[in-house]
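Q: what does this look like with protoporphyrin IX containing FE bound?
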Amino acid sequence: MDKEIEKQVQQLKEKYDAIGQDLDTHLDGLLHSKPMTYWDYIQTDALLNLQVQRTVLPDEMVFIMYHQINELIFKMILWEIEQLAYNEKLSTNVFTNKLERISRYFDMLATSFTIMQEGMEVEQYLKFRDTLTPASGFQSAQYRLIEFCSTELINLIDYRFRETIDRNTPFEHAFEHLYWQAAGKDYKTGKKLYFLEEFEEKYKDQFVRTMKEYNRINLWTKFKTLPKVDQENVKLRNAMRHYDHTVNVRWVMSHYGAAQKYIGGGDIEATGGSEWQKYMHPRYQRRIFFPDLWSQEELDNWGIDNLTGHKLLT
Ligand code: HEM
């Protein structure tokens, strides 16, 4: 037998011995297994059967598919963040490369938003959105998970309550003061709206688990635990700033632009029922994952000029 094959058989034997399995049986299994095809591997049949319209309006298909693409990319982002978070021997190079990779995904989401903004007829949108009420993109759990994994909880707390919350605050209490709670409440009575109640019913346990899991390994804490000299690394700082700006200004502005086009300027309510215009603009919302990496001037101008803060450090 070819030496290389002999070595492989030996390795396989060791692999199966280690888990108490019989190599013969596995080799027989290999003999009968079906050759791989693209469609089985990528699961194209399953994937392409997930687009189910709720109305007869053709542009609803664009809406569904673009959201699904977003969710897939969110999943890729979370996948990469997890690799970074659990890496115990991070070099600035690995940190920077991974972060740039994550940013490329988010860049894609920010630049492709024109698919939404220019992609549908307003008349069609205004019809199919009625059928989708009260569902909302607000209920994207992965978007929230990305935030929990990216920064310390305090940076996701509604500014009005920041002084009352610190590292000793129970997670459940902090959860009730996350910035996005405001969009899901009747601003006069403070009562949670239906779409927020449903969202929490489904995901709150997972959110609190993730808040705890990433408490000490989120991207911001990870960065701050690097040696001081690494924290000064310009390439890494630029990568951090780019990510922060892309998620919290560029994407938010693209999203805001789409909302303006379809439901802006009038009395039209968001499908979720929020006071969205007061809530969505980065200038008011001021979500910032890595606050110490911005100058005072950049912080003061956050979200005012779309490009502010995007400049590269040298
Ligand atoms: C025509 C397209 C879109 C419009 C008009 C729109 C509109 C809105 C509005 C009005 C809100 C505020 C909450 C509410 O519903 O009351 C919202 C929230 C949200 N939407 Fe969209 N959206 C669009 C596309 C998308 C897409 C493609 C995604 C990607 C998953 C998305 C993700 C989100 C998220 C994550 C939030 C919560 C944002 C936050 O808390 O700041 N939206 N959207």
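Residues 234-263 form the longest helix (30 residues). The mean pLDDT is 93.
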